Amino acid sequence: MPVKTSDFKTHQQTVEHNGFRFWFNTYDNEYLRSLQFFFIESELKQAIGRARVNTELCTVEVYSNYPLPEACVTLEEKESGLERFKNISKSQLDNVKADLEQYFGQFRC
What we know:
Blueprint: E1 10-17, E2 20-27, H1 30-49, H2 75-87, H3 90-105
Antiparallel strand pairs: 1-2
């Protein structure tokens, strides 16, 4: 973990990460850049996940200059996902909801 005081300066630069090449304000030091990207990615995924896209029919729009591989969805993938969601019956969703409530209910104080 070789980090010097001078490594803590950031500037706009072209970087490659997760198979993307993009312009980002980051560190020259690879270790610090990896830490920065880890925290940014974790926070973005947490924020996107709050929409409950797995259980609710919704669209999440992300406006960020940090690309997430999971967020790059083609029109075909979107249509396929909407079709699968339409095929799930309300009773199936109600069963899943009841199971989750039962499971998490055991942890309540």
